[in-house]
Amino acid sequence: MHLVYPARSIVDQRSLSAMSAVVRVEARAVELDAATTLPDYLVDTYSWAYLRPRSLRLLDRHLVVNGILWGNYHGLVRAACSEFARGDHILQAASVYGNLSSCLADRVGDEGFLDVIDIAPLQVAHCRQKLVGRDNVRVRVADAANPGEGGYDAACCFFLLHEVPDPQKRQIVNALLAAVRQGGKVVFVDYHRPVRWHPLRPVMAAVFRWLEPYAKGLVSRSIMEFATYPQGFLWRKETRFGGLYQKIVAMRTC
Description:
By secondary structure, the protein is an alpha/beta fold. The chain has a single domain (64-252), classed as Vaccinia Virus protein VP39 (Rossmann fold, 3-Layer(aba) Sandwich). The chain has 10 helices and 7 strands. The protein has helices spanning 13-35, 40-50, 53-59, 62-68, 73-81, 100-108, 121-130, 166-179, 201-210, 216-219, and strands at 89-92, 113-118, 137-141, 152-158, 180-191, 233-240, 245-252. Strands 3-2-1-4-5-7-6 form a 7-stranded mixed beta sheet. Helix 1 (13-35) packs antiparallel against helix 7 (121-130). Mean pLDDT is 90; it is low at 1-23 and 29-35.
């Protein structure tokens, strides 16, 4: 996201009102966060990234999210969106910085529906602001391990699994697999163990060690291993950027 500065030093009243509305919404979300029981792993490890309004405004920028993914953000979003069709009803397993939700909403069109969930009310409020005016989108508070609904044509889990402990990985994978109808699919896009010669391998090892403590449990095994009944799905895998990223598609067969 690029910063655009007003040509004049005086901001019109409409802009001031919109800015005030965002502040009120995020302040209300902070109050809701305080009254909501959030997982310890989220509070202890990722408060700085997801539970502070200042962090939202700092991190939810194109240059930041694309930089974190070494210039691969748009390619990974396109890879995810390519799995869905117009008219699909999709569950998005967590709010995501960047324009993934907008791209998914555009992909399914007016005939489709995008249901975005997140466990943090602040993230839900922020996502609603980003998607305001879209009639084919709903954003609500829910845990990806218990989304509360089912029968979706597809589900999208974009860079969520590496941020949760292994027991939650298993719960989330199983819940998303259960949420899609027969013939539906779950699309996982996340980190993967890079090839040995990858120049970023030591850098990412340090990032995982200091900032992403639950990533090791993901890159050390297949996502399919977290599924209790993987045999009910056809699994397809592809890697990108020297193996640093992966896309897993699980299509339900029964």
